[in-house]
Amino acid sequence: DAGVTQSPTHLIKTRGQQVTLRCSPKSGHDTVSWYQQALGQGPQFIFQYYEEEERQRGNFPDRFSGHQFPNYSSELNVNALLLGDSALYLCASSFRLAGGTDTQYFGPGTRLTVL
Amino acid sequence: QKEVEQNSGPLSVPEGAIASLNCTYSDRVSQSFFWYRQYSGKSPELIMSIYSNGDKEDGRFTAQLNKASQYVSLLIRDSQPSDSATYLCAVNRAAGGGNKLTFGTGTQLKVEL
Fold it and tell me: Is A44 part of the contact surface with chain B (CB cutoff 8 Å)?
């Protein structure tokens, strides 16, 4: 049973560039959430996708956008990269349960460095 | 006030001892609670989930929830050096058709030989 997968593992970009990160959820899961984790901090919620729609969004600017595909995989896009966007980007998948008690499982993450 | 608060540590315990990790949260509407373990340079790994007041045990781990006090804890019995990691407390709340995890900054645990 494959777990959550993410690509690429590492990425180096320069300020102003754009980046796309990819995530495939755990088998049987239909919901994908994205988090940003800066060094020494807990993960911060970016947004969540379910049924190919953004269902909830955290306090991130519009430079951060996403997409979910019919096979439940997802992409995170970040435009106009800033130095402060350097972080570990985590994808978490879950199966949508009534009452919002889904358990989220994390992928290995993508380490983004912005120079 | 932070939504989820944890003591950053480090918390040092000798091998074989009980490690006690604590977490408080501010949103009374929170519905489910999770503990994740994160090794340096790795992604968070789910340890325990708890939804109702009381204790929940899984092997060497016990999660405790007190919604009235807005308090969650994790006990690790017979601590091993391999338990040395950062433990993240996460609180889940459904809103607007979705739900999100809000994390504390984590407590670093060191289990010493």
Answer: yes
Q: Which residues contact B92 (CB under 8 A, 6 or more apart)?
A: A100, A101, A102, B30, B31, B32, B33, B34, B99, B100, B101, B102
Question: Tens digit of pLDDT for each residue in B82-93?
Answer: 999 999 999 998
From chain B, pick out residues whose CB is under 8 angstroms from the CB of A40. 105
What tokens were used for B87?
A: 């433990």
B110: tokens are 């060191």
Which residue shows structure tokens 């340096």?
B40
Residue-wise pLDDT tens digits, A4-51:
999 999 999 999 999 999 999 999 999 999 999 999 999 999 999 999
Q: Which residues of B touch A (CB under 8 A)?
A: 4, 31-32, 34, 36, 42-46, 49, 51, 88, 90, 92-106
Backbone dihedral region for residue A99 (phi beyond 0: left; psi -120 to 50: alpha; all else: beta): left
Q: Distance between CA atoms of B74 and B6, rounded to whole angstroms? A: 12
Q: What percent of chain A has pLDDT over 90?
A: 91
